[in-house]
Amino acid sequence: MKKIWQWLTGSVIKEVGNVIDDLTTTKEEKLEAQRLITEILEKADKEAQEQVTARWESDMRSDSFLSKNIRPLVLIYLTVIFTVCAFFDGNIGEFKIAEEYIPIFQTLLVTVYGAYFVGRSWEKAKSITTKK
């Protein structure tokens, strides 16, 4: 998630860095400002993750089939649609996946495997440590 956050805010951080460079005169002031900004961004990221977790927990407590299953259903739908588009995009006759799809598949695989396997491992470890 941190890499996604950095990617989404990359231009913002660069602009903030330019403002800091213009406003500060010493290297120590610049380093302190950068430390504070990093701290603020990390806190915002943590709070965002906590909100997502709270929404997921709320969904799972619901009695509604759709509330409990909307994320997996959307994931399945988007994966199928994207895969169908990637495999059939210009592939009449000779099969070749277009170059622009490859980084998207790579990102999706890393994200899904990371979220599922690392997330599940973390949840299991947390449940074991809280039982003790």
Describe the overall structure.
This protein is an all-alpha fold and 132 residues long. The protein is 85% helix and 0% strand. It has four helices and no strands. The protein has helices spanning 2-23, 27-61, 65-88, 101-131. The longest helix is centred in the middle third of the chain and has 35 residues, at 27-61. The protein is flat, with a radius of gyration of 21 Å. The two termini are 29 Å apart. The model has no long low-confidence stretch (mean pLDDT 75).
Task: Tell me briefly what this model is.
This protein has 132 residues and is mainly alpha-helical. Helices cover 85% and strands 0% of the residues.
Instruction: Report the major sheet.
Output: none
Helix-strand makeup class: mainly alpha
Low-pLDDT segments, ≥5 res: none
* SS strand fraction: under 5%
Q: What number is the mean pLDDT?
A: 75
Order of helices and strands: HHHH
Number of separate strands:
0
State the end-to-end distance. Answer: 29 Å
Number of helices: 4
Q: Label the overall shape.
A: flat
Q: What is the percent of helical residues? A: over 70%
As a whole number of angstroms, the C-alpha radius of gyration is 21 Å
